[in-house]
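SEQUENCE WITH STRUCTURE:
===
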Amino acid sequence: MLPRGSRVRTRQEHALVGRSGRRVRAGSIVVHSVQTDVDGPPRAGFVVGRRVGNAVVRNRVRRRLREQTRSRLSSLPPGTAVLIRALPDAAGSSSADLGRSLDSAFRTVRSPRPQRSARSG
């Protein structure tokens, strides 16, 4: 279980991160991230929809994601909020696969966004 201060808990927080955040797909997960308050610890929330499987499968995927995230959350900058959404393929993924996907996504989240060039036209 993640500590209380390290969780995205409310519906408003989930909506903020999901709608206005940066989105990164890695393997069988999608990670939405947004920089919130600078002083707070990094926080994580999880979304595992019905398309992933029945309740037993969804809870297993959520537990695996939570455990893999717990050890990696401190690698994110302070004040970062992430929402980790499992895709249907996550049901067949091992914990190691989910961990590799999280590593890849978190690497992208930590990197600065590339500047978009202005289009002429």
Notes: The domain at 4-110 is CATH 3.30.230.10 (Ribosomal Protein S5; domain 2).
